[in-house]
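Notes from hallway chat w/ T.B., transcribed later so I don't forget. T.B. wanted the structure written out for a chain they're using in a teaching module, and asked if we could keep both sequence and structure tokens in one place. Agreed to drop them here.
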Amino acid sequence: MPTITVDGARIPYRVEGTGPALVLVHGVGPGAAMWDGVLDRFTGHRTVVRPDLAGSDAASDDGAPLTAGTLAAQVAAVIEDAGTGRADVLGFSLGAPVAAAVAALRPDLVRRLVPVAGVAGPGDEYVRQLVASWLAAAGDTDAFARHSTLLAYSRGFMNRAGHAAVEQAHAFMAPTPDRLRQVDLVGRIDVRDLLPRITAPTLVIGALHDATLPVENHREFSTGIAGAEYAELDSGHVVMGERTDEFLKLVEDFLSR
């Protein structure tokens, strides 16, 4: 797995598949592995590049608070190092504003942009309180994991999945120092001034039942980018898990134009 150094941070990334380049930018969590469930739906016809950014389990850095600019610079450096040329960039959750920052600051690297279930700035008091409660649960590993699961999925999806599957989902999130740095950035990130600078064709995907970053934030995200298209799925926050086929169709239809 290639690893590059960006401003002192060691950033590994994975390259899989063949075809036009698609960069998948992860949100809060262990890192690039969050895309495992949909990876094989892309790699048959796209070269998929998945960076593990600072704050993920595979990356290493100085432990300083994360910023949108820091993570965007890492994504840009990975695209350059991978040698794919201009790439389509899809960012989920915290990865959505990071992907948007890449498109605004390095338009030479981004062909099309797809921010998913993201937040553009810290104006939502609900999100402020959510981040504070999430961080406050860090002293109890089980409480932190259960809180994270409640935020990730809609009530309907959890009931369809069943108790055993939802219990297994808790293992995805643990209150490590790096995870807490990611959660902290969710409450601070602000790319609103960058959105008007985006020239790449953009599709913003929202999630109607998002308990992490409520759908009003997704709609605000789309209105900040001139000419952006907006699509909304009947889903909780993790749209690629809840509405996999609908999500992939939206993405593929947009990227294939």
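Follow-up for T.B.: The beta strands are 3-6, 9-16, 21-25, 47-51, 87-92, 110-116, 203-207, 229-233. Might be a good example for the class.
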